[in-house]
Amino acid sequence: MERLQKVIAHSGLASRRKAEELIVEGRVKVNGKVVKELGVKIGPNDKVEVNEVPLTKEVPVYFLLYKPRGVISAATDDKNRKVVTDFFPEINERIYPVGRLDYDTSGLLLLTNDGEFANILMHPKHEVDKVYVAKLKGIPLRENLRKLEKGIVLEDGKTAPAKTKVLSIDKKKQTAIVEIAIHEGKNRQVRRMLEAIGHPVLKLKRERYGFLTLNGLSAGESRELTPHEVKQLRALAATGQKK
């Protein structure tokens, strides 16, 4: 027996939080009857409908994509721009990205049809590190980077403490390469953090997500996560332990 919202999330239809909203709104039926209470448990033979459509449980799949620049982190786009799911033409499951990378940002992006898994990883309280490498306009002072390490106030609130490291500087071109690690997922967060200390981002790439890296992949290439990696990610999110 499993909780109804968990079954909906595992179907790939929605995250567990969205599934709970669907239930409360009376849009879910079990064996033909509307269920509005959270926590109801169902068995494998119970028939679930969401918005009058029978729920079919997909086998969960998990992928790691090296997202190129100039691609939308979404399953579809109303402007017909290239989206990350375009790199998986042979996948029948309804996969979608875990979080997002900006249009102009490249790097590591996870995709899945497991709504619960995605929701766990995206929640900031679970503190899964995301490591970016940014090329900046100007050479940042140590004291300014320290502001990011303490948390900096943006228009949508104060950020959690980040980790920063200067990888290289080019005094002639007045640019710097900086590594920054965060565990939140605010919209355009890394770019906004660096702009806030006076150093606009010229180029940005996510190089690591938890313990996962882009090793062996070129832009536009992907691979399926191993069962062990999926298990490790769940454990990492559950403990908040950074690796």
UniProtKB/TrEMBL annotation:
GO terms for biological process: enzyme-directed rRNA pseudouridine synthesis. CDD domains: PseudoU_synth_RsuA_like, S4. Residues 2-65 form the RNA-binding S4 domain. One of its GO terms (molecular function) is RNA binding. InterPro entries: PsdUridine_s_RsuA/RluB/E/F_cat, PsdUridine_synth_cat_dom_sf, PsdUridine_synth_RsuA/RluA, PsdUridine_synth_RsuA/RluB/E/F, PsdUridine_synth_RsuA/RluB_CS, RsuA_PseudoU_synthase, S4_RNA-bd, S4_RNA-bd_sf. One of its GO terms (cellular component) is cytosol. Pfam families: PseudoU_synth_2, S4. Keywords: Isomerase, RNA-binding. Its EC number is 5.4.99.-. It comes from the Bacteria. It is an enzyme of class 5 (isomerase). Belongs to the pseudouridine synthase RsuA family. PANTHER family: PSEUDOURIDINE SYNTHASE FAMILY PROTEIN-RELATED, RNA-BINDING S4 DOMAIN-CONTAINING PROTEIN. This is Pseudouridine synthase.
